[in-house]
Amino acid sequence: MSAVEQPVTPLERDAIRSVGTAHPRVDGPLKVAGRAAYAVEHREAPYDARPLHAWLVQSTVARGRVLAVDAARAVAHPGVVSVLDHTSAPRLQEGEDRELEVLQDDRVDFRGQIVAVVLAETSEAAREAAGLVEVAYDEQSHQAAFEETEDTYEPETVNPEMPARTEEGDVDGALAGAAVVVDATYETPVEHNNPLEPHAAIAHWDGEVLTLADSTQGVHPVAQTLAPLLGLEQAQLHVVAPYVGGGFGSKGVPHAPEMAVVLAAMTQPGRAVRLAVTRQQMFALTGHRTPTRSHFRLGADADGRLVAIEHEVLEPTSRWKEFGEQTAAPTRMMYAARNRRTGHRLVPLDVAVPSWMRAPGEMPGMFAHEVAMDELAVACGLDPIELRVRNEPDVDPETGKPFSRRGLVDCLRRGAERFGWSERPAEARATLEGDWWVGTGVAAATYPAMLNPGNEARISAADGGHYDVAIGAVDIGTGARTVLQQIAADALGVDASCIRLRIADTDLPPATVAGGSSGTASWGAAIVATAQRFRADHGDAPDPGVWTQAEATDAQSEDHALHSFGASFAEVRVHRWTGEVRVPRLLGVYSVGRVINPVTARSQLIGGLVMGMSVGLFEESYRDPRTGHVVTQDLATYHVASHADVRDLQVEWLDEEDPLASPVGGRGIGEIGVVGTAASIANAAFHATGTRVRSIPVTADRFL
Amino acid sequence: METRIRLTVDGRQRETSVDTRTTLLDLLRERLDVTSPKKGCDHGQCGSCTVLLDGRRHLTCLALAVAYDGSEVVTAAGLTGSEGDDETLHPVQQAFLDHDGYQCGYCTPGQVCSAVGVLRELGEGHPSHVTEDLTGPVAADDDELRERMSGNLCRCGAYPGILAAVREVAGQPAGGIA
Amino acid sequence: MRELDYHRADDAAGAVALVSGDPEASFLGGGTNLVDHLKLGVARPRVLVDISRLPLDQVEEVELPGDSGGGPGLRVGANVRNSDLAAHPAVRSGWPVVSRALLAGASGQLRHQATTGGNLMQRTRCVYFQDVTTACNKREPGSGCSAIGGYARYNAVLGASEHCVTVHPSDLAVALAAVDAVVVVLGPDGERRVPFEELHRLPGDAPERDTTLAHGELITAVELPASAAAATSTYHKARDRASYAFALVSVAAALELDEAGRVADVRIAWGGIAHKPWRARVAEQALLGAEPTEERVAAACADELADARTSEGNAFKVPMVTAATQHVLQSLQGGRR
User: Fold this and answer.
1) What pLDDT was estimated at residue B175?
2) Cβ contact (<8 Å) for B41 and A608?
3) Partners of A292 in beta bridges
4) Regions of chain C short of the pLDDT cut 50
5) Could you tell me the fold of the domain covering A157-191+289-449+560-703?
6) Fewer C-beta neighbours within 10 Å, C or N terminus of chain B?
7) Could you tell me how far CA A177 lies from the centroid of its own chain?
8) A378-394 confidence digits (pLDDT tens)
9) Which residue among C2, C153, C327 sits closest to A128, beta carbon to beta carbon?
10) Where is this region: Disordered (chain A) (predicted)?
């Protein structure tokens, strides 16, 4: 089947019937009853026989060579089938991704790297045997501490392909002449995505086709990435992911465990092999957010108008695979100032590879920027909202393009009204209620509207006025399965009940990753384009069986800057005795274009705010520099927000549509809730106590 | 070492041979194909594996199956009922649907079981960390529900929807929540 | 996890005989800590003796025996689940600190599983202890202490040694230290009573030993003497997350004032501070007979903490536990419990 290219036109306003309605989540009944099948829970063919259990053995040194893997005791353990190591694993084709070169050589690049895989009849045997594998190393010296080193360098680009450095005007001159200067350093720690479903997959190799039920944010990206390394045609990889227990970026690209289970399955033709990564193993093997150190210099005139913005970032990458978090990217488009400089420098460390975590770049970068803006407001004696209003740019400062919609001020004003901002005392440390210091804070949020090329949809007419709509998109909990049905309904001009949607399978037309807040726009564009082509080709009363497969072109304006905006407002209480920090109120107001489904959108935005609070208050991985080992490798030492932490938490969005950003009129909502939230909490904590905290998490010990 | 045990799982008698090392969670998921309880941490730190064990909410990851011979296990899948050929949802499950108290759904069966347990504990007058007066009656207010549900983590952050769901069922007459 | 033999005990004496006679045997109670350790490889017994069905599940109001101090009190069976103990009316009115400490610990599910005896025997949550790929003297004597110079946020500030710097994780144990509980222990040679402060030990040069119990000795009950102070007692647990988190520091305190508002009786125990629940006897002495003002409490805590040793990662515990103690004693004066 081949796709046609179809210039897409945005959904007409009067065609919108299902979009925008509170359609309940279509997979809800399965989920609340626990009947949705996640990766290793698949029991249909070819996974129906009792699968073998794989267990990963990880390196205990940060750098060196594997001298020998002694599996004798492991293999002798009852139920153990085999132990794979770099001498016995199937060979991969040459690739450019060191992370996926699992068991291909004796090199150890980081602590926790996969050095062997045990296969056994039961998980008990596999786990025990993994502990019996003895690995001898030639250990080499390593660098795991995040500090300036001789090896620090400036990369050519940062994620995904942005220039590492930008410069405009005379920053140093403007700072020298500025009436007010904020010069401070802000830090964010190592963070781990920690979806509740650990990475997991079940694989089956029949000698021709590799079938993989994976916990991933993109089935086609997994097949596209793994197939060439395995020396297979992409059609020989059949990947499905009908239900995925969250990802938050960590399942956005295949990581080493997926390759490990695939290699293991290829040694056992005809037998399924399952791998459930343990929570502890996730801290080494499934990506993390690199720590960031942002040095900001803001210069302003006496009434708070910025004359210079400088944001210099220092952050680690792994020595063996570069990942530069685009921490300064939002600084380039956020506020007006004639003189501006941003740059990233990377410290290569012998550590696991950093990767995507919800709002890479924006989350740490906007934490730094928005606390710096709060400091500037204090230094200028200005209300922090007024300061931001005064620094609104007319056009995108980076590209000079007009914004399709710049909703920041509207979000700030609406939020201020709803939050009761006018009641706020101007001075910090002004309110003590019982045992608690009370304060409020605000921060801005932004996220780019991304629309990925490479998506196709297929629409087939079925009996009874039904339509089969197929695309390889994945619903990681976002509600894609529900909103794509709504989009298809309106694009075809039929009731949503007439749409039978299939997703999450590489047998379906190709789709890009559920990441970067791009899914609904990217997959939706393909569905809208296909519907338009379908109607053009087959009319309004198509014969059952006719079908169209198309890819959208011209889906997004190239002449505009396309960004979502938001404002988060936090009330923070700091215990006057113990310093414990609580957030009784949190409000986010967002400008995100058209909301396709208010039910799932609200949950997405709330979820972003909760994670923003969580990174603001709790989340920090401790990587022991002596070993390169993340020792806080569970959910008791890596805290994420619990029920008790989330109190009066509200979200709201502005009523708008943005056909320039996508044919469905939306700009994406998955990430923006996590942007700025931590800064609003740190700013509120300052307002409560008078203590300025420039790094997250904002913990009790800062206030003693 | 293998031992034979008997369990009632979601109303069904199951007799099986288990490795004494097998956790109740792995027995359910890997041997009995009862995958409604989820493995989120295998470490007692997330609540995804929560079931009702002899009527009380219980983690299955920190339980050796052999020690629970003779017990009754009810998972989220076992909370559903039936009307004719149709499956009907437990009021707590329906409230989760009505309030969108989940996203990815992975923690959801554990949250549902925990909520059912919380409502029973409230009915029995159990206090919690946030109960102001330890010697008085306990109320099913939001603070109490949040605290009591805190052993179930949700990384999608669906807590406000979950709270609304539990609150709604807590407000119903006791007969509606059993 | 090694392959395991499993025995369900019929009576306590039989269980004690089985375990005390086999260095590779362990008692299995609620399992919340041991099953975790089996999976992590931290504990590698060959035999499990399941005591969870022994009929040690009663809470009784009793006259305590002479070697528990005599007088009215409560006898709590070792298998009483944490949730049931916290909810027991006699505990809620007579020993609120015990209810409060239990309810501040773990989660609703875990409290249904965890037993009174098991709670006291739980082991540290030090990240290195729980990770068999790192050195830890408690897990593997002589291998070294990774926590020294490593992740320090939860480390001890009092009573640590060069061999171990970790803390005891139990909340209940801190409360029991404050109310002068007595632990009833059954061994191969019969029953003995251990004053609570003598149950847990400081690490010294044998951090592998958490308690003073011999292998095979089984806690069968805990006895709580009644007192006016115990009835005016409470617990504050300072933690990062609002729930379901181990303590940074915690304070269990019981207070009785005389008519002039001076301290007639005070018991203070600290959690998150040491390898054992830390009974703050020096601070108590400093407060007896005085008005418990903010300043005086701070000074008393300073005396108690005179030998505190901290690193950058846990230095906050000294001011935090001081402030938490001030807060708790102030709350008790205000009638909160």
Assistant:
1) 39
2) no
3) A188
4) none
5) Aldehyde Oxidoreductase; domain 4 (3.30.365)
6) C
7) 40
8) 999 999 999 999 999 99
9) C2
10) 1-24
pLDDT digits (tens, 9 = 90+) for A408-439: 999 999 999 999 999 999 999 999 999 999 99
Please name the helix (run of DSSP H) or strand (run of DSSP E) that holds residue A201, with its range, or none: strand A200-205
Residue of C nearest to B122 (CA): C87
Q: Give the strand order in the sheet containing C47-50.
A: C5-8, C47-50, C25-28
Give chain B's domain count. Answer: 2
Domains of chain C: 5-50 (3.30.43.10), 230-333 (3.30.390.50)
Average per-residue pLDDT for chain A:
97
DSSP string across A547-595: EEEEEEES-S-SSSB-EEEEEEEEEEEEETTT--EEEEEEEEEEE-B--
Q: Are residues B66 and B140 in the same domain?
A: no
Distance CA A635, CA A654 (A): 36
* Least CB–CB distance from C151: residue in A578, A631, A645: A631
DSSP state of A24: P
- Are C305 and C295 contacting, i.e. CB atoms less than 8 angstroms apart? no
- Angle at A185 (CA atoms; ends A184, A190), nearest 5 degrees: 160
CA-nearest of A405, A412, A682 to A568 is: A412
State the Cα–Cα distance between residues A615 and A608, nearest whole angstrom: 11
Average pLDDT estimate for A125-131: 97
Structure tokens at A552: 């959208």
Residues of chain A positioned with their CB less than 8 A from the CB of C326: 577
Instruction: List the single residue in B with minimal CA-CA distance to C30.
Output: B63
- Exposed, middle or buried, A559 (CB in 10 Å: 0-12/13-18/19+)? exposed
The model's confidence at residue B178, banded by pLDDT at 50, 70 and 90, is very low
**DSSP 3-state assignment of A239?**
strand
Interface ipTM: 0.97
Q: Six-digit token pair at A626?
A: 């002596």
CA C2 to chain CA mean position, Å: 29
Residue showing tokens 């144990």: C173
**Please, is A44 exposed, middle or buried when counting C-beta atoms within 10 Å of its C-beta (0-12, 13-18, 19+)?**
exposed
Instruction: Collapse the DSSP code of A295 into the 3-class scheme (helix H, G, I; strand E, B; otherwise coil) and give the result.
Output: strand
Architecture of domain A4-36+452-553: 2-Layer Sandwich (3.30)
Average per-residue pLDDT in chain C? 97
- Cα–Cα distance for residue pair B88/B73, rounded to 1 Å: 19
* Residues whose CB falls within 8 Å of the CB of residue A606, separated by 6 or more in sequence, listed in order: A649, A651, A673, B157, B158, B160, B161
In three-state secondary structure terms, A180 is strand
Number of Cβ within a 10 Å radius of residue A255: 23
- Beta-carbon contacts of B133 under 8 Å, excluding residues fewer than 6 positions away, are none
Amino acid at A687: H
Which CATH architecture describes the domain A40-141+194-285? Alpha-Beta Complex (3.90)
Report d(CA A528, CA A455) in Å as an integer: 11
Residues B100 and B63 in one domain: no
Three-state secondary-structure class, residue A373: helix
Indicate which residues of A carry an active-site annotation: 671
B47 and C3: CB-CB below 8 Å?
A: no
**CB-based contact C150 A699, cutoff 8 Å:** no
Which H or E element spans position C278? strand C278-279
**Domains A4-36+452-553 and A157-191+289-449+560-703 belong to one CATH topology:** yes
Amino acid in the structure at residue A37: A
Q: How far is C188 from chain A (nearest CA, A)?
A: 33
* Chains contacting chain A through 3 or more C-beta pairs under 8 A: B, C
B contacts of A123 (beta carbons < 8 Å) = 26, 30
Do residues A71 and A101 make contact, with C-beta atoms less than 8 angstroms apart? no
**C-alpha to C-alpha distance for B23 and A342, rounded to whole angstroms:** 53
Q: Where are the beta strands (DSSP E) in A435-534?
A: 436-448, 456-461, 467-470, 499-502
| Cβ A182 vs Cβ A298: under 8 Å | yes
